[in-house]
Amino acid sequence: MSIAHHLPALLVMTPLAGASLTFVTERRRDPVVAVLTGLTILGLSIGLVVRVLAVGPFRYEIGGWGAPVGIDLVADGASALFVLLSAVVGLAVTVYATDYFRGPRASVYGHGMFWTLWLFMWTSLNALFLTGDIFNVYVCLELVGISAVALVTLNGGSRALRAGARYLFSSMLAAMTYLLGVAIVYSATGSLDMAILRSTLVPDPAAATGLSLMVAALLLKTALVPAHFWLPSAHGSAPSPVSAVLSALVVKGSYYTILRLMISVAPPGFLPGVDIVLGVLGATAIIWGSLQALVQTRIKQLVAYSTVAQIGYLFIVFPLARAGTDVFLLALGGALFHAITHALAKSGFFLAAGSLASRFGYERIDEMAGAARSAPVLVMTLALAGVTMMGLPPSGGFAAKWMLVSAALSAGQWWWALVLVTGGLLAAAYMFRLLGVLLRDSPAALNPPSGAIRTEWVPLSLAAGAALLVLASPLVTELVNASVLVLGQGVTP
Amino acid sequence: MMLVFDIMLMAVIVWIALGSLSPRGVYKSVVMFVVFGLFMALGWVRLGAPDVALAEAAIGAGVTGVILLDAAGHLRQRTPGPIPERHVRRGVAPLPLLASVIVFFVLALLVVNLPAEADGLAPLMTAGAEDSGIKNVVTAVLLDFRGYDTLLEIAVLMLATVAVFSLRDAPDILGRRLAGFAGPLLGSFTRIVTPFMLLIAGHLVWIGSSEPGGAFQAGAVLGAAGILLALSGFASPRWAGRRVVRLSLTVGLLVFIAIALYPLFLGGTLLQYPDETRKTLILAMETWLTLSIGASLVSLFIASASPGPDGGIA
Amino acid sequence: MNHYLVYGLGGALIFSIGVYGMLARPHLLHKVVAANLMGSGVFLILIGLGNRAQGRPDPVPQAMVLTGIVVTVALTALGLAIVKRYYTVTGLTTLDDDPPEADA
Lengths: 493, 314, 104
Prior knowledge:
heterotrimer, A: disordered C terminus, C: mainly alpha, 0% strand
């Protein structure tokens, strides 16, 4: 077997080994271990993308047993895309964090655990994107959840602890509900493998209820309105590198699993009405999240509510999924494109907002007037990310919304298009409100930058990547077409 | 006859579950929850799941019970007396009650309507276990067929330990005396019981491949021994510094990763143990896992346990 | 009535009790206990229904439950550590009270 075949396994084992090592090596070496791990993961992810494009989707049989006895990993276009996305955002955040956790912050005892916790989270995200087994998803979700909660409470302040506790209890509720769903699906069907489920599922109230419970639990993890109550405080009060990862990647992990369950596991018509409900909730999230973002007074809270809104776009794909192959492909491409764009733009945005907040020493938007003159790179980052979130050309946000709007119109469901356009206008409103203050011509007394230029250039590169993502659309389209989501039946064992 | 026993057992379990949410103070809740775990263990035996029964008694009731008790004690430190009225909310909340009644009826309907006979994956697994030579099928599923789940589960345990460490504001977790129940009786009890617990842990690892037992049960016993030592006021020895603690927490996962990757060099996939060394590899792995699981459970307790009156540093 | 039904229905009941506790009990320790009850309910359903296999009970649910028990104790320990720390910093035992002074 060539080494390329082992890439899915190596993508999980590398960050896992890195996490274990950072716990036992000396603390000052942690950033080095983390960056090296990140570079390795990036290399492996690129390898995986190349491999999938060359041979198409493939399964990796752990232990050589093969489903249904063993657990199989599934590498396809979509999972390779998300793994690569995590690698890019993850590496950028890692580099940023080497500066963030220096100086006075380094003396906070809990901060010393950042590297181990973060590499565990990276492990769990890769594992979640690659797994083909619904019980294994449960274990991955717990890894994601525990590392996310711990990273939110890293500051140890009362606001962070409160947010962490709320996050933890919603995670627990979601995890137990998901596991209940798995228990029912297994009891009804006798299988845990996604592809086997797809080929054996027959209309059956038990299996349908089990699957719906799993989807409902994942909605809570993805923070789709009205299950978003935990997100703004958690994302808003975490250390900035953590907020970036939570908004960019963690919510995408559970979203990706919903995609797999709704589209590649449930046969058409298996969960009647659920796709419409998801679409309506998505539309509500777009409007409600944007309106909330308009009235926030703290910069990180604004970004967090913007995430609530942007999550909504991801769910418009479901009502469009059954409206013919062309419409579905367009909508799925739009949703995945949106997921990537949002991840890049939002991580850049959170990191820049974090740098800005630490330069000011506070987070209140009204008091940040004049930032553009003293920290032009950071404000430019915010502007670029803003352009993407509004969906202006040539940003990736434009391409994503264009695809979704065209899909809605060709399906004759113009109301989704209306919501998408309104969402763009509202995003413009809250972004202009923020930029208006930052660009105001008044002297601002900022703390000097930490000296590390990576606190400015890393966010800028992420935002710029999002703004130019249109250029990558052929690659994305090719990967979408090479995914189990599109192939329907999946790769049978 | 057995059915009557089952129904009675289940009724008692449900009654205790209700009691463990009683608004009459969290101490009572916690004690009820420990009792709940013990009765659940009885249920597992009835359901032909002795491995689960062992784990439930040691981990579900034992370790969870101890950390819950400690937390209940901690939360009473500053607010002696009954909990303020608004925190317990006597009576029944209508909306959650409605939600929970709906959940129950939906689940009950599903359970009743499932076919009365379903083999699931049992035949495949039993056949596979015969091939691999591991007589305890549950162990074969855990460490062989679905060993990847177990690898990630060990990661969960270690991750949670790291997470609990990150919530502290000082690095020292060892050498601390706890606000335990130190007294002559517990001291001598611990002295007698600890060697036996170590023996039992070793035994559970050794027999795990053929009979109920294995790394988790053994690790739980090891952890319980450690917690007992901590509670009875034994400060850890000087050589057990930060390095040793962290290494003992991590070694299980590191060995597991190494053994998982080893087959890749032989042309197999992740965790594809070669047939001739399968049992040796699994036993080696389980031994190190036991150590790390035990260390994790002790650390989960000590790292967040309430310090003693002298500030906790021995 | 088969014995698997007793445990399956019991599991459903215990899960529902856990749901009630999670939603209706404000004290954070109650919530931790409630989450554990939800878990135990699922475990009972899994292993109870695994008893429908002819001959020996299905080992897969048992392995899943063993994994679940370990994961749950990890989650519980983290939850309690956060609850305790939250209490030490704010003096609160619920999330319903007025938020403490922001510590931006």
